[in-house]
Every structure is written in structure tokens, then in C-alpha cells.
Amino acid sequence: MAVAGVRERLRSVLRAPWTHNPVLGLSLIVAASVVTLAVAVCGPSSVALKLGPRIDLLPPWYLPVGTVELNEWVAVPALWLGLVAGTVGLWICWRAVNSGWRPNNKRLFLLGSLLSVLTCLVPPMTSADVLMYAAYGRIQVLGLDPYNITPAEIFRQEYDPLLIWTERPWQDTPSVYGPLASGSQWLAAWLGDGNMHNTVFWLQMFALLPFLVIGAVTVLLARDDHKIQTRTILFTVLNPLMIWSVLAGAHNEALTLVFAILGLLFIRRSPFLAGIGIGIAGTVKVSLVFYGIAMAWGYRRDWRKLVQLFVGAAIPLAIGYGLIVPRALLAASRNTGYISAGSWAPWLQWPLAQVIGDASSRGFIGWAGWGLMVVVAWMLSRVLPWRLVPGVPDHEDPRRDPLTIAVRTAVILTASWLVTSPYTLSWYDLTTWVPLGLMVASRLDVLMMWRGLWLSLAYVTGRSVEFSKPMQDVAGFVRDGLCSGAQVAVLVAIVWWWWTWGHELPTLPRWSLRRHSPAPSVQPVP
Length: 526
Prior knowledge:
Among the domains are: 252-337; 341-505, no CATH class. Helices cover 62% and strands 0% of the residues. The chain has 21 helices and no strands. It has helices at residues 2-14, 22-41, 72-98, 105-119, 129-141, 151-155, 179-192, 196-221, 226-235, 240-248, 253-265, 271-282, 289-298, 303-324, 346-356, 358-383, 402-420, 430-436, 443-458, 469-500, 510-516. The longest helix has 32 residues, at 469-500.
């Protein structure tokens, strides 16, 4: 009876008018960005990065140091509240679209673009990754190799006006990025001319411009389908979780993804150009291999197109890793074995380490994550709906359209990787949000909001700076307790979704079944 009462109250809340009021939803999204801007414009604090001296009028802009000194008990809770507000706003707008809201998509895109641009005109926050990008670029400008030499090896021996502003914990870590990412870091450092503040500005632009291009190309992929266009805008340039995670932290996820999305733009017309796109994406980060697999799966019935895709992808990969920076090919392997706070893994790693040791527990969890990914990918493949990506006649079978297959498969592979990886961060979610916008509404939309919110909350205090003991305790509870629990809840929700939708299990290939048993009845795919 108690459970039934709770369910009925929940249903009554979900039926309330405010839960699909787009004006309220957009207001909350804007409010989230305003909070971010207000905290950042106050200048260096426990959450906003110190960028060193400003030598000209280039952004990022903030008040003179000492004008306003934000206490950690003001900055951190304010950002937490902003993230909650923005996520609730996204959820409300998502419900409004499902209820029939059809806004002016041009204005909606402009609003998202404005919030994105403003976020990149103030100092980055809560992650010092951008400082490491700048450091790797500076090392290259100095004529050294960032794949073998770390920033700390230089600034511990001699003063450098840029490297001195880097922060823990990655100062002793060589670069793990592909040749194109390294090229962007070199260009930013060259344009910054030894000044961290200016170098960070250019890195922010290298995050912002691809982010906006991704949004524009995804809207273009939605063609004239008004509802899908609105979804793509909400999930890209107007997504408060991605504005926060990718742009407020100046991460290079957008630079990684933009070429893969451009590849999708050509997948119906030119497998070779689609391959060029995914190949270039692979020269930024190797994690884009999931998009390559998705494209190949879309062409699996046409070996000629599959060969063209592989040839197109091989050209930039061979140039980048074979000719320009061959040592970058193995750089990403240095990132293995990590377990991030806030993922599902810490809950298992700690007790397991008491039994078999820390190193063995990490190895076991790493392999368990890959095995779990296969299971979750199967489950999602059974429950995610099929719907043609706009641009072909409605009567065409979506299971035969290479773009639809590639988009759906990219969602399945990236989402299953994100929710099962022991090392997972909120800005990685961009790889799923973008293709997800081209699909119809499903439970995965809400699960991505839930997952992204908790990971974003967990890393508000992600910098390796000295927080007070009470703040460390609260942040640890949010990160290691609530966020890790939320990630476990996502896995449970996916299993429950699959179970309630028929819990279909893998079967032997049809040819084998025809040889040894009668053909099974055809069951509809949810």
C-alpha cells in the first residue's frame, strides 16, 4: 500500500502543468548559466582557475583579483544549485517537446549559442585539464616532446612563465592525446606566446567553435523534422550539463567529436568522406573508435561501401600516427587502470582491494567493466526504439538505412561504455548526447540527465586545491557516496528496462537454428 501511494503521488507530480512548461524550463537553463558566469567572473577561487597575469584585453574576463573573494561555502553550493536547476530545466523542456511544444528553433539555437559563448568568456572552473593542454602546447613550442617530457620535469629545474601555473594531479603525466589534439595545443600555446591566460583563451575557443559546429551539423542532420531539430538543440548547444562540463571546463571533447559528426553528415552520400571524418576524429582521441564501429555496422551489408569507409579512415590515421607522431599511438594506453571517483567502481574496488590487493582489484574491475559493457550494449540494443533519421522517405526500413543504423549504434556503444567504464567523467557524455538527439524520446534520455547531473555535482570540487576539512567531508559524501550510488542506479535501471521489455537473450545465428531446430517466431523489436 505504501509503495502504491508513493507511485500515485509521483504520477500526480509528473502530471502537474509545471513539469512541461517550456518557459519555466528555459528560465532554469538560463539561470544555471547565470550562476556559472557569476561565480567565474568573480575571479580565482576554490572553483575558478588561476591563470596568471593578464597582459592585454583578451578573455577570459573577470574582476580584478581581490575585488570579490568567494568563500568555498558560497561558490560550491551555488554551482550545485545551478546544476540542479539547469538539469530540471532540461527535463522540463524535454517533457514539453514530448507534449507537443514546437518552439522557434532558430531562436532556440541562438539562445544556446549565446549561453555557450558567454561561458567561454570567463575563467574555466573545477578542472585543471585545460592548464595541462596549455602545458603540452608550451612544451612543443619549446621544441620538446610532450609524449616523453612532463611539465613538472621542466618547471622543477627552471622557471617557465606558463608551466608554473599548472596544477596537480597531472603535472608528472606525459600527453595521452592524439596528433591533432597536440597540434591544437601547440597552436594555442604559440598564439598565447608564453602567457597562460592568453593560451587558455585560445583553448576555450578550440572548445567553443567545434561545440557550436556540432550543434549546427546535428540540426542539419535533423532536416525538416521540427521535433527532432528541437531535441538536437536541447541536447547540444542548449544542454546545461554539456555547457557546464565541456565549455566551463574547456575540455577537448567537442574537438574530438566534431569530425565524427561531420562524417555522419556524409554517410548516406559518400562512405569515403564519412571515413575521412572518423579518421580525423581518431587523431584527436582514440575513444572515437566507437563511432567508427557504428559506421562500419551501418555499411555491413555492402562490402564496397565498407571498404571505402576503411580507406577513408585509414588516410588521416596513417598520416597522423604513422608519419607525424607515431609515438602518440601508444600514448592512450597510459590512461588504463584508472578508477574515477564517482563511478560505479569505487563501491566494489575498496572491499575487493582488502582481499586481493589494490593492483589486482583494479585489473579485475577494468576487465569487468569491458564485460559489463557488452552486456549493457546488448540490453540497450533490445530496448532502444528504431526510427529513421530524417532525410529519406518515411516508408524506408530504418534497419536498412546506414545513417540510422550508425546513429543508433553510436548511442548504444557510447552509452554502454560510459555507464560501465570504471573511469568516467561528465564531459565524456557529449559523445552520447549528440546522436541521442537524432532519436525519439526514450528512458535513456532521462538516465543521461540523471547520470550527468551527479557526475557534474561530484566534480564541482574536482580541483586538487586545499578545501577545508568540512567541505572535503561534504564533497566526499557527494562524490564517493551519492554519485557512485547514482551510477549504480543507472545500471540497475537499464537492466530493469531490458527485463520489463521482454528480457530478450542473444540467440545463435539463423543458419544454425534452421539446421538444428524449427525457425522461431519473429518478435517485434521495442
